[in-house]
Amino acid sequence: MLTSVDTDLMRVLSDPLRLQIVTLLAKETLCTTHLIEETRAKQTNLSNHLKVLREAGVVETEPCGRFTYYRLKPDVIASLAGQFADLAETARATTENNVKRSCP
Predict the structure, then answer these.
(1) Distance between CA 71 and CA 73 in Å, rounded?
(2) What is the per-residue pLDDT across 40-83, written as a single tens digit (0 to 9) for each?
(3) Is residue 5 a contact partner of residue 87, using CB atoms and an 8 Å limit?
(4) What percent of the chain clears pLDDT 90, i.e. is strictly above it?
(5) 51-63: b (≥16 Cβ within 10 Å) or e
(6) Closest Cα partner for 66 from 36, 40, 31?
(7) DSSP per residue over 44-57, as a string?
(8) In 3D, which of 13, 15, 46 has the Cα closest to residue 32?
(9) Residue 66, SS3 per DSSP
(10) Element (H or E) spanning 89, and its range?
């Protein structure tokens, strides 16, 4: 049973703009222009955040002419959700079994 969460991925998703991007990409594949319109972020700022998401393996790109489309990789999000579910199950078992460390 897993008892920790991928902290690198949590750090990547903890930024409000990156979380907004991920939420938008969960609904549809979008190009940079669409993401700028939706988030109202500056192009350079958005590009930097997309680079972080790409390097973390959260999104993948699809070139289309002079545009780049971004798609969310659902397996990465599902893995993180599974890690949280495992963590919750561990906490549930700890509570049910009244596991606690005794004080010295």
Answers:
(1) 6
(2) 999 999 999 999 999 999 999 999 999 999 999 999 999 999 99
(3) yes
(4) 75
(5) ebbeebebbeeee
(6) 31
(7) HHHHHHHHHHHHTT
(8) 46
(9) coil
(10) helix 74-96
- Rounding to the nearest 10 degrees, give the CA dihedral for residues 17, 22, 23, 27: 140
- In whole angstroms, what is the distance from residue 6 CA to residue 19 CA? 16
Task: Work out the number of other CB atoms within 10 angstroms of the CB of residue 76.
Answer: 20
Count of residues in the chain:
104
Bridge partners (DSSP) listed for residue 70: 30, 61
Q: C-alpha angle with apex 13: 34 to 38, nearest 5 degrees?
A: 20
CA–CA gap between residue 25 and residue 11 (Å, rounded): 18
